[in-house]
Design a protein that fits this description.
globular, transferase, glycoprotein, alpha/beta, 2 domains, Glyco_trans_14, three-stranded mixed beta sheet, 388 residues, binds 2-acetamido-2-deoxy-beta-D-glucopyranose, 9 strands
Length: 388
């Protein structure tokens, strides 16, 4: 045994004499160890006996929860309804799109909520990099914390650094690269919807970009959206090359020419329609395969699909103000020179529209689209003129 231990010592440090001396000195250790173990055993058994006695005693005194709480793990799953209604505390997760969409498509079958639910608006920002209008939005959101949530989908290479005081702090969702006019853009929008659906209090879903501004204060926006019987997405049947001309016959029978719709991608949708988009597997492959490049899938996919499935739920107009020049495929971009006092007057005039089947002059809650060079003067003017 001695040589055995010695050889282990020599294997470890190559010093046989040293190993020998250590064997000499460790000989009394087993005895010491034994007595220590014995003492330990006695203490443990005494402790368990004592605690048993104590718990019995305490049970009589009705303070058992104190004892119980001491042996529970630090991180605890709530065992109440809270577990199902509390929004995720971190937006970052490792779910794949298919895992996320599956999870986001859970819908309760009982329509009445067994708790007090304050419906929120999910403001979803589809951006490339920074959000230059964040100071304006921060002012817009301030004081309404219970009524909104924010989600940002940006280029995965972009790492935002919002101050902790900003409403945008920590609101980035796991993102992937998107390309304008391609299905990857719709994928980004579906990802935003799916992440926002994980919070059961989100009832309305607004898609915005870094070049969007609010035109009205939060109270007006909330009231307008929450009292509307319809969801707001531009969806119209346009003849000509930029409308029906983008339809591909291979999409039938799922989509035929008369059902083909066009509209800007900047929508406001109810929770029901958000789930419909996230769970769609009928129209998605058709659009992915047959609406490519100059088809601009983001101007047709949701617009056409929702018009087929739920035409009675759509206002067929967007809440986001843009100027569509005639005979041009895309909306106009405003530059630095366009931003002045008159600009805001011009936006608020507009032509009348319908709201819950009644005529109204308040048609737009947001505006775009602004060139990067115009954002600084825009921020300055809007802080001044919008008054919130
Ligand atoms: C929002 O704007 C409306 C109209 O401009 C105004 O009457 C209302 O007081 C504003 N609400 C808040 C909370 O500032
Ligand atoms: C388009 O599809 C609808 C329903 O699927 C059908 O009723 C209609 O006849 C179709 N229209 C054409 C032009 O094929
Ligand atoms: C929107 O358009 C659909 C047809 O695509 C129609 O059925 C629906 O009534 C329209 N909505 C409103 C509010 O007019």
């Amino acid at each position: 045994m001695q040589s055995g231990v010695g050889s282990v010592g020599s294997l470890e440090d190559g010093k046989v004499p040293y190993a020998r001396t250590t064997i000499q000195s460790t000989r009394p250790l087993p005895l010491r160890l034994l007595s220590f173990l014995l003492l330990f055993l006695v203490v443990v058994s005494m402790y368990s006996f004592l605690s048993l006695y104590m718990s019995l005693f305490l049970k009589i005194q009705n303070v058992i929860p104190v004892v119980q709480s001491r042996i529970q793990p630090c991180v605890q799953e709530p065992r109440t309804l809270e577990k199902w209604i509390r929004p995720p505390s971190y937006l970052i997760h490792t779910m794949t799109d298919s895992e996320l969409f599956w999870r986001a498509s859970f819908v309760p079958r009982i329509k009445e909520y067994p708790f007090k639910r304050t419906p929120k608006i999910a403001f979803m920002f589809l951006t490339r990099g920074p959000l230059p209008m964040a100071p304006l939005w921060d002012k817009f959101f301030k004081g309404n914390e219970k009524l909104y949530s924010i989600y940002i989908h940006s280029s995965p290479s972009y790492h935002p650094d919002f101050p902790t005081s900003s409403a945008f702090y920590g609101r980035q969702i796991p993102s992937q690269d998107t390309e304008w006019g391609m299905m990857s853009l719709c994928d980004g929008e579906r990802r935003l919807l799916a992440n926002a659906l994980l919070d059961i209090s989100n009832e309305w879903f607004v898609l915005l970009s870094e070049a969007c501004i609010p035109l009205k204060n939060f109270s007006i926006v909330y009231e307008y959206i929450s009292r509307s019987r319809f969801s707001f997405i531009g969806a119209f049947d346009e003849p000509g090359q930029y409308g029906r001309g983008r339809y591909n016959e291979k999409m039938s029978p799922e989509v035929n020419l008369t059902e083909w719709r066009k509209g800007s991608q900047w929508f406001e949708l109810s929770r029901k329609l958000a789930v419909d988009i996230v769970q769609d597997s009928v129209y998605y492959p058709k659009f992915k395969q047959f609406c490519r490049a100059l088809c601009y899938v983001d101007e047709h996919y949701f617009q056409t699909m929702l018009s087929i499935q739920s035409p009675h739920l759509l206002a067929n107009r967007s809440l986001t103000w843009v100027v569509w020049p005639r005979h041009k495929p895309h909306p106009a971009t405003f530059g630095k020179a366009d931003i002045n006092e008159n600009f805001f007057k011009k936006i608020s005039e507009g032509k009348p529209c319908t709201y819950n089947n009644q005529l109204t002059s308040l048609c737009f809650l947001f505006a775009r689209k602004f060139a990067p060079s115009s954002l600084e003067p825009l921020l300055e003017h809007s802080l001044e003129y919008l008054g919130f």
